[in-house]
Each structure stands twice: as structure tokens, then as C-alpha cells.
């Protein structure tokens, strides 16, 4: 695998990273049943539908980022609105298979240093969650929430609470996870951040599922799916459907789980990732329960 690194646009959007710690929205996976292949985060926003005429730029990025001995990081510069972020996002999606550990993203336009901390520290904390350093992670979550609240950034506060709730679930602290995620969902709704709410609701659904709150879990997943559909986020919708299927399976609702996964399968297939193959195997295994 090529060396680790970030792709960064001129207005400070961290787009992708290979093989190490980065900032971006992270969703921690926790499975109640038999072990499954490790799921990786793929949090890149969509680059837009009308991307054309930048073949030379894409080839230049390939040469600079994928060739032997490529140096990291790479900074894209240019005047506002010229298309730096769109170019980087399109390239990162195009070369997603070269980032097997996933892609992480944080939009940092126009952030003061303190506001930057409110967003970024919670994502850095998630990196410590992945390696089991919950003591370090929780300290960073506290700092992130303090920074967000100091500058009145409710978006950053909801982001930090969502990551905190995911980390607490990963650590088995389910009641605290439920509280953090419910508060994050309330903030997302209050500030009309429906895209962010979609991700928070999915995390809330998983915590409710672990707590045995089946109706609440299904409601949260269904809300997440609807919001992702409304925003045209294919990956987010497929992921929430997959998580709903996991919940239905663990509660013995095999027929419904199959229906949900059959809805998710063409979405994952269109995304051309490994999830489609995994889901086909899962659907095949459901025959044993019918």
C-alpha cells in the first residue's frame, strides 16, 4: 500500500488519509453478532454531477499522489471558487480503491482557530478510540465541546456529541451514549442541519439497538434513511439501511432484514466498494433462517 498522507485543498478541507490518524467525521462500528470484516469510514461528500474538463488536473494528481516516492501532503491553491475542493473530492472518489483504510473529511472554511478546535478535536479523539485509548479520547472530547460552546458553534457541538456518543457505545457506556446522541440529534434538528442529523440518527439507532430499545432504534434508522434519500447521499442511505438490517437480524426479524438489505445492495453495488460483496454473502446466509 502506498505511504500515508492527506489531500488538502487551498481552503483547508481535509479530504482523505491513508494508514494513520486524520481529521474527519468518523463512525465507529460495533457488531453484536459474529465477527465481520472491519468496516472502514467513507465520509467524502459528493463532488457534484457536472464535473468535466479537468483530465489534465486529475492526471497531475495521480502523478503527484500515486506514483512511487510520492510526497505528502499535497496542497491545492487558487482563488476562491475556482474549484479546488471539487477537484480534490472528485479525485478522491475516483481513486477511493487506493485508500483501503477509508476516507475522512472535515470542511473547515472560514474557521477561527478556536472554532477549528471545536470541529477537529472530536475527530482526532475518534482516532484514539480506534486504538482503545479512551482516556485520551474523552479528554479531547471535553476540549472539543468546550471550544464549540465557547464560540457558540452548535454545529461543532453536535458533531462532537455525535462522535462522543459513538465512542461511548464502542466502549460499552450505553446510557451515556444514548444521552449524548439524543442531545446531538436535538441540536441538529434545532439548527436545521438535516444532513448532519442523518448521520447522528444512524448512530442513535445503533445505540438504541444495543440497549434493546427496538422501536426507538427502527425509528432512528428510518429517519436517517429518509434524510439521506432527501439529500441524495447514496452511501449514507446504503449504510443506514445496512445498519437497520443488522438490527432487524439481531431481533429475529429475518424477512424484514432481507428486504432492507435487498434495498441496500444495488446502492452498494453502484458505489463499487467491498460492501456489496459482503452483503451478497449475508443475504445468501439468510436462507438458513427461512
From TrEMBL:
Signal peptide: none
Protein name (record): Tetratricopeptide repeat protein
Organism, as annotated: Lentzea alba
Amino acid at each position: 500500500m502506498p505511504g500515508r498522507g492527506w489531500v488538502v485543498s487551498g481552503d483547508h478541507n481535509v479530504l482523505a488519509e491513508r494508514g494513520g490518524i486524520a481529521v474527519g467525521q468518523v463512525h465507529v462500528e460495533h457488531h453484536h453478532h459474529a465477527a465481520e470484516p472491519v468496516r472502514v469510514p467513507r465520509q467524502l461528500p459528493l463532488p457534484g454531477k457536472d464535473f468535466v474538463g479537468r483530465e489534465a488536473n486529475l492526471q497531475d494528481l495521480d502523478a503527484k499522489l500515486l506514483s512511487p516516492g510520492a510526497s505528502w501532503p499535497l496542497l491545492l491553491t487558487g482563488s476562491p471558487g475556482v474549484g479546488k475542493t471539487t477537484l480534490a473530492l472528485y479525485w478522491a472518489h475516483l481513486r477511493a480503491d487506493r485508500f483501503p483504510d477509508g476516507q475522512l473529511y472535515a470542511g473547515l472554511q472560514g474557521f477561527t482557530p478556536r472554532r477549528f478546535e471545536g470541529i477537529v478535536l472530536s475527530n482526532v479523539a475518534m482516532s484514539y478510540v480506534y486504538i482503545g485509548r479512551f482516556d485520551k479520547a474523552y479528554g479531547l472530547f471535553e476540549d472539543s465541546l468546550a471550544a464549540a460552546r465557547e464560540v457558540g458553534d452548535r454545529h461543532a457541538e453536535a458533531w462532537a456529541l455525535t462522535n462522543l456518543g459513538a465512542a461511548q457505545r464502542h466502549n460499552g457506556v450505553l446510557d451515556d451514549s444514548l444521552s449524548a446522541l439524543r442531545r446531538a440529534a436535538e441540536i441538529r434538528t434545532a439548527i436545521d442541519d438535516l444532513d448532519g442529523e442523518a448521520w447522528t440518527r444512524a448512530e442513535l439507532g445503533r445505540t438504541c439497538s444495543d440497549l434493546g430499545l427496538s422501536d426507538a432504534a427502527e425509528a432512528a434508522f428510518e429517519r436517517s434513511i429518509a434524510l439521506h434519500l432527501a439529500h441524495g447521499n447514496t452511501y449514507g442511505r446504503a449504510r443506514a439501511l445496512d445498519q437497520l438490517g443488522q438490527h432487524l437480524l439481531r431481533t429475529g426479524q429475518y424477512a424484514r432484514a432481507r428486504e432492507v438489505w435487498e434495498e441496500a445492495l444495488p446502492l452498494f453495488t453502484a458505489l463499487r466498494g467491498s460492501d456489496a460483496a459482503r452483503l451478497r454473502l449475508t443475504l445468501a446466509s439468510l436462507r438458513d433462517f427461512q
